[in-house]
Amino acid sequence: MAVSRHHDLRGPGAAARARQEVHRLAGDALVAGRPLRSTTENDAVLVVSELVTNAIRYADGECTLDLALEGGGIGIDVHDHNPEPPRPTAHDPAREGGFGWGIVTRLVASLTVHRDADGKTVHAHVEN
Known about the structure:
Layout: E1 4-10, H1 14-31, H2 38-58, E2 62-70, E3 73-80, H3 100-107, E4 110-116, E5 119-127
Antiparallel strand pairs: 1-2, 2-3, 3-5, 4-5
Helix pairs in contact: 1-2, 2-3
């Protein structure tokens, strides 16, 4: 049984809605007999929150989120209309923010960016 979720997101509440979708996917996984560890769910919540926040902030205020159980974990795809890949920022303790990409790269097993004619998709995989 395929376990997946798709959601179109826009506006200031997008990251919160994205986090809810991760929790719903975890519930679907449990019902399907493929439970997720709580650390997997928590890591995926943080990754989704960071990716969606950045997509909303740096694109045109909307993105799509696709979540799926894949390869022993959670596959996360966030697509937005800005073709520019994420740019990690240098560590500056005096600056507020700018830590999200570094956090994401530490929590995921794999992370790729695919550009297309309509923008880009960031794909992350969180192992279970």
